[in-house]
Amino acid sequence: MANSQRSSSLVDPRNGFCKANSTFYSKRKPLALPSNDSLDVTTFISSQTHRGTTAFIDAATDHRISFSDLWRAVDRVANCLHQDVGIQRGDVVLVLSPNSISIPIVCLSVMSLGAVVTTANPLNTASEISRQIADSNPKLAFTTLELASKLASSGISILLERVVDTLRAPGGLKVVGILSEMMKKEPRGQEVIRNRVNKDDTAILLYSSGTTGRSKGVNSSHGNLIAHVARYIAEPFEQPQQTFICTVPLFHTFGLLNFVLATLALGSTVVILPRFDLGEMMAAAEKYRATTLILVPPVLVTMINRADEIMAKYDVSFLRTVRCGGAPLSKEVTEGSFSRFSGGESEVRCGGVVVMGLNQTGELWLKGPSIAKGYFRNEEEIITSKGWLKTGDLCYIDDDGFLFIVDRLKELIKYKGYQVPPAELEALLLNHPDILDAAVIPFPDKEVGQFPMAYVTRKPESNLCEKKVIDFISKQVAPYKKIRKVAFIDSIPKTPSGKTLRKDLIKFAISKL
């Protein structure tokens, strides 16, 4: 995909394909981006005009925060972080928290200072989080008392969500502030002049799933985020002032970009659930008259399978849009959702373009103002010298310009929308004293999409069993990364250069179904 200058006479208006350079160009109009280079994404969003009233609702407590109260809280927290804690432009702040209204306030405050937000999955183990801390070197961590123990070994200063007995902070962690108190603190004296933020400054540092090994930090600048929000404003999937149900994790790029940033600019209301639960999600959709659901494919499959029960128990007449992504979505599931829930006209909308000819499969490369800067400490790895982002997705584009993602070059396992890197699990397996070799593959499952399955070669005379392998891994990883099936094999198939033939193992596993 590209947004660069090109001769319109060479581009097919139907699908955006230019035969001269074998590039697909977006059929959307170029974005009118702000010309001011000294602009942070928080200021850009807060300056948008709309008629929205309620910004966020906590579904668990029914606590609401209006747009005016939100921006007042963001400004107060930013002042406290700057004056009392010493957060400056370029400092990194870690967010380790379950979904809550607090996350948008913290993230927007941090970015307004020119500091960098990095997030961690609260389900991750302490060792997994410590590796991210070692790489990103945060100056401060925002967390809850329940999760603070996972930071105990880091020695990092923490900002807690609410008032607690500071003596209870685990591991001698230093509590430097309470978010709920910062939100109420009136500015004192003359306003302190903050460092000027540049659009090229890094705003967020989010970590990949680690397809080929350890996860890597991906830098996105304020300019990248502003372009993402600007596109949302220019061509929203939904009309302004809609009500969204958010069950996707806010630590993930999809949740952060959409529910912390883009929807605010439209004046929409986001109802935040702490975690996904189908019953709680549908109850919230009914209670708050939700117009939009954001789902991963396994959830949509469950909804289709339980459609009669859902329709009988909940009023979903206000629902207008279901957005689904994060894992493969079959044609059967898409059509099934229409037939079970649609009350009339239905539409599938897709976005994006690929580098190849029409109906030819190749790797998706992207280029545009919202594309991330690259990997932290290694921007060249995924960004070409000409600014193309290599996604690792295998795709094709049809005659109408619709993009279809068909596979991954690097074989991530998609479990309930979570991405699980096989290489990480393989490295752990090889630490077991009874395992000679191992390979991890995605095993298909109707309920969760895929789950990690391990092929293991035991050392001679070992009596290692499936349960022991599963237990060995489950103690070291987050729940979604657990191995759920093990098969023993004499040797792991590999190429002459020693690379695991994972696709051969996948075919073999499927043949046994």
In short:
It is built from 14 helices and 24 strands.
How would you describe this protein?
- This protein has 3 domains: 8-26 and 352-408, Luciferase, domain 3, CATH 2.30.38.10; 41-275, ANL, N-terminal domain (Rossmann fold, 3-Layer(aba) Sandwich), CATH 3.40.50.12780; 413-511, ANL, C-terminal domain (GMP Synthetase, Chain A, domain 3), CATH 3.30.300.
- Helix content is 28%, strand content 22%.
- It contains 14 helices and 24 strands.
- It has helices at 41-46, 67-85, 102-112, 126-136, 179-182, 222-234, 253-266, 278-287, 297-305, 307-313, 331-341, 422-429, 466-474, 502-511, and strands at 17-18, 23-24, 54-58, 64-66, 92-96, 116-119, 140-143, 157-160, 175-178, 202-207, 217-221, 243-246, 269-272, 292-295, 321-324, 362-366, 374-375, 389-397, 403-408, 413-415, 418-420, 435-445, 449-458, 485-488.
- The strands form 7 sheets. It has a 6-stranded mixed β-sheet, with helices on both faces. Strands 6-5-7-8-9 form a 5-stranded parallel β-sheet.
- Helix 3 (102-112) packs across helix 7, helix 6 (222-234) crosses helix 7 and helix 9 packs across helix 11.
- The chain is globular.
- The model is unreliable at 351-355 (pLDDT under 50).
Proportion of beta-strand residues: 15-25%
**Terminal Cα span:** 38 Å
Flag low-confidence runs. Answer: 351-355
Helix content: 25-40%
What is the approximate shape? globular
Q: Which CATH architecture of the largest domain is right?
A: 3-Layer(aba) Sandwich
Major sheet attributes: 6 strands, mixed
Structural class: alpha/beta
The tally of strands reads: 24
- Total helices: the number is 14
Oligomer: single chain
> What is the alpha-carbon Rg in Å?
24 Å
Rounded mean pLDDT score: 84
What is the CATH first-level class name of the largest domain? Alpha Beta
CATH topology of the largest domain: Rossmann fold
